[in-house]
Write a structure and sequence with these properties.
It is a single chain. With 119 residues, the chain is α/β, with parallel strands linked by helices. The chain has a domain at 22-90. It has helices at residues 22-32, 84-90, and strands at 39-42, 48-50, 56-59, 64-68, 73-77. Strand 4 and strand 5 (73-77) form a beta hairpin.
Length: 119
């Protein structure tokens, strides 16, 4: 741009949000209106659902972000949205047939569908 000729500039105060986290995406969702048609949100202020094709319902869970990616579901508190990278670091690649389960923090990870007896 510094060498361009005939360029005109218009002042615009449009606000700015660096959409680099799920919390930022949730702020934008709040500003643009209600959740998409595949979400029912009851008594869950500051929560946002970014969905795939299935219905996601939230009842009395304030301040969470739910991301339905089809083969995986992410549920994270907005205040911890930056910690999603910790989940990504735990993902075994490739993930044949779905998600693996880890419990590095001792929080009681749950087995995915189809996993029985630790298999």
């Amino acid at each position: 741009m510094e060498k361009a000729r005939g360029v005109e500039v218009v002042l615009l105060d449009a606000g700015w949000d660096d959409v680099g986290s799920w919390d930022a995406a949730a702020r934008l969702r709040e500003a643009t209106g209600p959740p998409d048609g595949n979400a029912i949100v009851v008594g869950s202020p500051r929560s946002a659902v970014f969905g795939g094709g299935r219905l996601v319902a939230l009842v009395d869970v304030p301040g969470v972000v739910v991301v339905d990616a089809g083969d995986a579901l992410l549920v994270v508190s907005r205040r911890s949205a930056e910690d999603v990278r910790r989940v990504v670091e735990e993902l075994p690649l490739p993930r044949p047939g779905g998600s693996a389960v880890t419990d590095r923090d001792g929080g009681g990870a749950q087995r995915g569908a189809g996993e029985k007896n630790g298999v």
